[in-house]
Write a structure and sequence with these properties.
Structural class: alpha/beta
Low-confidence stretches: 416-428, 490-496
Helix content: 25-40%
Shape: globular
Mean pLDDT: 91
Distance between the termini: 68 Å
Strand order of the largest sheet: 7-8-6-9-10-11-12-13-14
Length: 496
């Protein structure tokens, strides 16, 4: 074994040295093959026995997180700690590592350095997408454009495929459309993408970062490469243009763009940054329709243009794109009432865009706010609301905001023994039953022309496995309804 105190400048320096991986789930397991391929000796630390067993099956050592997190001598035997993105900077293992001068790389930092070291061939072109909302849709749109252009590419990162897996894939992906969360960016200080975008910034994950400025600083990491792209229609993201380290900055807007920007002219996305007012695609061809979908398309088009993709391929890619599940997806129409699953609206900023896309809304909201405030959201969307149903750990916080800013909007609470109109709603803890009761309560508020909208503005982990489970639960509950479940004052006809 090499001395763990020898300087570490490249993943190639890890041969014969021990690496401690913090977290044995998706991102932790993904880095194991790459670490073994550069000759490292790997130990995985986790508190979950099943995760450790899965890692042991890959041929590495494992250790209980509790056993090693504060063991300075054991941690000091490692040349590097590779951390999964969910671990906060003040978590015991990472604090111990820094105390004994062991460097800490996130899985994205490790992937970037592996790529730069040409472990899997010449470095890829990284196109990075971040922001509070719209990351997955934008990344997927970008991937569709790259595919339309015939570029060997992969969508990866926070979108579901670990970046290191995309680097190792055969056939090779030359361009990576990389969705990155603020957690991933925090632990990836070396990443310098060919182009990176910050879509928008709103309160989210403040409990993890410790405040708004730290959250913004993490997002800024995406703008440290060759081209920085920012959303000009967002109050905070627009200010990052002046703070970007990239030598070239581009803004995108739903309005007429200035020179150097991408925007909309007479219903067409126009490029004044990389082209001479070149038309890219008609806005009415974009899915999802509405302001949020347009912003995502503008961002994807800007990144693609930064990577040299011709206009005709951007048009083809955006026209072919279809929105994924749990992102403003219509799951049912019954008697003139739409049931829309936007479970991916996991913070107030995302819920705002979702609600404003509809004229009359019965809003389903609740879960974990993660330190975010909802008063401004409720005050803005109140004219659209014909009813609200709240649930989950912070449901009462949302209900209180509705009481302050939308006192005329009827609110049902699930679970609560005091809520009129919510049958059997006392002490309900099963997520699927909570959702079933919430949807029934919302349906009773819905008349033709109304949208029953799941846009929770919260994380889902208090009652559901993830936002996908929450959305699936909503869709199942909507599917179980009949005409008799809707508001009794209107003729809803037969089920659609």
């Amino acid at each position: 074994m090499h001395d763990p105190r020898e300087p570490l400048t490249s993943p190639l320096d890890l041969r014969g040295r021990r690496v401690l991986v913090a977290g044995g789930r998706v991102s932790g397991r993904a880095v194991i093959p790459a670490l073994l391929e550069v000759g490292a000796s790997v130990t995985v630390a986790d508190s979950d026995t099943s995760s450790l067993e899965a890692c042991a099956d890959l041929g590495v050592d494992t250790v209980s997180m509790d056993a090693i997190a504060t063991d300075r001598d054991a941690v000091a035997e490692s040349a590097l700690v590779v951390t999964s993105p969910g671990f906060r900077p003040d978590s015991p293992l990472l604090t111990t590592a820094l105390t004994v001068a062991v460097p800490v790389w996130g899985d994205i930092e490790f992937s970037w350095r592996i790529d730069q070291a040409e472990v899997y061939g010449p470095p890829r072109t990284w196109l990075v997408v971040t922001g509070t909302n719209g990351k997955t849709t934008t990344t997927s749109m970008l991937a569709a454009v790259l595919d339309a252009a015939g570029v060997a590419s992969a969508a990866c990162g926070n979108i579901g495929v670990p970046v290191v897996d995309a680097l190792r894939r055969d056939p090779r992906a030359d361009v990576l459309a990389v969705e990155l969360s603020s957690f991933q960016l925090f632990w990836a200080p070396s990443v310098r993408p060919a182009a990176g975008v910050v879509l928008n910034i709103a309160e989210d994950h403040l409990d993890w970062h410790g405040g708004m400025e730290a959250y913004v600083q993490a997002k800024l990491q995406a703008l440290h490469g060759d081209v920085a792209v920012v959303g000009l229609d967002d109050a905070i993201a627009s200010t990052l243009r002046a703070r970007a380290a990239a030598p070239i900055t581009v803004g995108f807007t739903a309005h007429d763009p200035a020179a150097g920007d991408v925007g909309v002219v007479d219903g067409t996305i126009v490029d004044r940054a990389f082209g001479d007012a070149e038309s890219l695609v008609e806005t009415d061809a974009i899915e999802p329709a509405g302001p949020a979908g347009l912003q995502d398309a503008l961002a994807a088009a800007s990144l693609a243009r930064a990577a040299g993709v011709p206009a005709e391929h951007i048009a083809a890619g955006l026209r072919s794109f279809r929105v994924g599940p749990h992102r403003a997806a219509v799951v049912r129409e019954l008697g003139g009432v739409l049931f829309v699953d936007d479970s991916k609206a996991t913070n107030p900023h995302a819920a705002r865009s979702s609600i404003l896309a509809h004229e009359r809304v019965v809003w389903l909201a609740g879960g974990l706010l993660k330190g975010a405030e909802v008063d401004d959201l409720v005050a803005e969307v109140a004219p659209r609301l014909v009813g609200a149903v709240v649930f989950g750990q912070d449901g009462d916080v949302i209900a209180a905001a509705l009481g302050r800013h939308a006192p005329d909007v009827p609110v049902d609470r699930v679970p609560s023994g005091d809520d009129a109109g919510v049958a059997d709603a006392t002490d309900v803890t099963d997520g699927d039953e909570v959702m079933a009761q919430a949807v029934r309560a919302a349906a009773r508020r819905a008349e033709p022309g109304t949208t029953v909208l799941l846009a929770p503005s919260t994380a889902s982990f208090d009652q559901f496995r993830d936002y996908g489970h929450r959305g699936d639960s909503f869709a199942a509950a909507a599917a179980s309804l009949g005409p008799h479940d809707l508001a009794p004052t209107a003729d809803h006809g037969t089920p659609a």
